[in-house]
């Protein structure tokens, strides 16, 4: 049976049972194959913007004889996905800014029936800010360790509310609510990164505003690790 890495297993755990899933940037299609093999999803669409990764995906689909359940599709983001074709939309292992670029034109996602499952490799604060500004509620966040590195995933659904969160909430999201030692470690890592950044711009008059914003985030976030 196909075994996922902890990072992909964490994201797979946020997919709702019984739904069609689309995996954007699928590469080997491990995640959709796992979901279908374990009968979590009846079928899946595995997409990638490049032919090479889709060839990798085709090998996985052939190995597990999933050709009638997993469709492989060349797609730049969600451009080749029609409204309603899938209910759960997965984006793993891509940078936060690319994820934003993929979500921006897909206004059909502004509907409570869709769930976004996102595991950004970078710029998580930009993903959370994007979701907030565009009316998506983050339902859950979770963290895992995979090959010595910390990864986090979130799931979100559209509810139309735009609660205007602050920068601390964008940097840390719901991580402080996770009762998980990896979440605490991730909070510490983010805090360390912000402190390094703040120290590197401290004292520069043209960076005064940026420094003050960072300082405010750091001061609030210190409470998370007390
Ligand atoms: C680092 S791999 C991640 C593979 C898998 N999702 C995972 O998390 O293990 C990123 C994949 O995203 C694909 N990709 C990059 N930009 C894309 C886009 N705009 N639309 C669809 N796929 C994209 C790449 O071709 C690559 O296969």
Q: What report would you give on this structure?
A:
The protein is an alpha/beta fold and 226 residues long. It has two domains: 6-162, Rossmann fold (3-Layer(aba) Sandwich), CATH 3.40.50; 166-226. The protein is 38% helix and 21% strand. The protein is built from eight helices and seven strands, in the order αβαβαββαβαββααα. It has helices at 6-12, 30-37, 51-63, 96-103, 124-133, 167-172, 181-201, 208-221; strands at residues 21-24, 44-48, 70-74, 88-94, 115-120, 136-146, 149-158. The protein has a seven-stranded mixed beta sheet, with helices on both faces. Helix 4 links the parallel strand 4 and strand 5 (115-120). Helix 1 packs across helix 2, helix 4 packs parallel to helix 5 (124-133) and helix 7 runs antiparallel to helix 8. It is elongated, with a radius of gyration of 19 Å. The protein starts with 5 loop residues before the first helix and ends in a 5-residue tail after the last helix. The mean pLDDT is 96. It binds S-adenosylmethionine (SAM).
């Amino acid at each position: 049976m196909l075994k996922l890495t902890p990072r992909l297993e964490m994201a797979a755990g946020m997919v709702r049972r019984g739904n069609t899933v689309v995996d954007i940037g699928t590469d080997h299609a491990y995640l959709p194959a796992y979901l279908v093999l374990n009968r979590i999803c009846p079928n899946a669409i595995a997409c990638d913007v490049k032919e090479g990764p889709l060839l990798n995906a085709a090998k996985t689909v052939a190995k597990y004889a999933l050709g009638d359940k997993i469709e492989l599709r060349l797609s730049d983001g969600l451009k080749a996905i029609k409204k309603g074709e899938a209910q759960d939309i997965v984006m793993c292992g891509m940078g936060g800014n690319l994820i934003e670029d993929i979500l921006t034109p897909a206004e059909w996602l502004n509907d409570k029936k869709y769930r976004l499952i996102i595991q950004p490799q970078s710029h998580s604060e930009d993903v959370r800010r994007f979701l907030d500004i565009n009316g998506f509620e983050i339902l859950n966040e979770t963290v895992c360790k995979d090959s010595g590195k910390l990864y986090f995933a979130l799931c979100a659904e559209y509810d139309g509310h735009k609660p205007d969160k602050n920068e601390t909430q964008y940097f840390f999201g719901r991580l402080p609510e996770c009762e998980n030692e990896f979440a605490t470690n991730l909070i510490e890592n983010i805090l360390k990164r912000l402190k390094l950044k703040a120290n590197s711009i401290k004292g520069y008059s043209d960076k005064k505003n940026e420094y003050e914003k960072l300082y405010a985030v750091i001061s609030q976030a210190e409470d998370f690790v007390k």
